[in-house]
Design goal:
The protein is built from seven helices and five strands. By secondary structure, it is an alpha/beta fold. It has a single domain, classed as Phosphoglycerate mutase-like (Rossmann fold, 3-Layer(aba) Sandwich). Strands 3-2-4-1-5 form a five-stranded mixed β-sheet. The two termini are 13 Å apart. It holds the Pfam family His_Phos_1.
């Protein structure tokens, strides 16, 4: 089984700013969210063989906390799991935007079709590197939401910090 997990909170999340590939670290709330999510998994009897992450520190630290708490292998980072680039929009506030304002801010962003192709390639590589294993991929909200929208044909709302979403085999190919 493969699943996505969103990283814990950063100061930019709290301030409602686009992070993208800007390497904003977890804050203490984010570290606690990672510990709490891992404990919930333990309490619910969930287990993972390995945890892999995006190379950005907020995802990597979340993954390391979860792996350590669960006693899972930390399987390293995958460049394809990095967050969507928002270009010159990174650092700008994203609260209370109209659809038109949001669309304008997305002009310099990585195109969604490129993000989906990159995410699929990364997921396929993770599956290939960890055959038959249960792997938790700690990554970013935009990547998860856009990839799941594409693969499932449904519209996924905002992915909350440390939310875990299982992937369907047919999405991976």
């Amino acid at each position: 089984m493969l699943a996505f997990m969103r990283h814990g909170e950063t100061d930019w999340n709290r301030a409602m700013r686009f992070q993208g590939r800007t390497d904003v670290p977890l804050n203490e709330t984010g570290r606690q969210q990672a510990r709490d999510a891992a404990q919930r998994m333990l309490d619910e009897g969930e287990s993972w063989d390995a945890v892999v992450t995006s190379p950005l520190s907020r995802a990597r630290e979340t993954g390391q906390i979860v792996a350590e708490t669960l006693g899972a292998e930390f399987g390293g980072t995958y460049d394809g799991l990095i967050e969507r680039s928002f270009g010159s929009t990174e650092g700008k506030h994203n609260e209370n935007l109209t659809p038109e304002e949001y669309a304008e801010l997305m002009v310099p962003a990585e195109p969604e079709d490129e993000l989906v192709a990159r995410a699929l390639q990364a997921v396929q590589q993770v599956a290939s590197d960890h055959p038959g294993r249960d792997v938790l991929m700690v990554t970013h909200g935009s990547l998860i939401r856009i990839a799941l929208n594409h693969w499932s044909g449904d519209t996924h709302p905002r992915i909350i910090n440390t939310q875990v979403l299982q992937l369907q085999e047919e999405w991976i190919g």
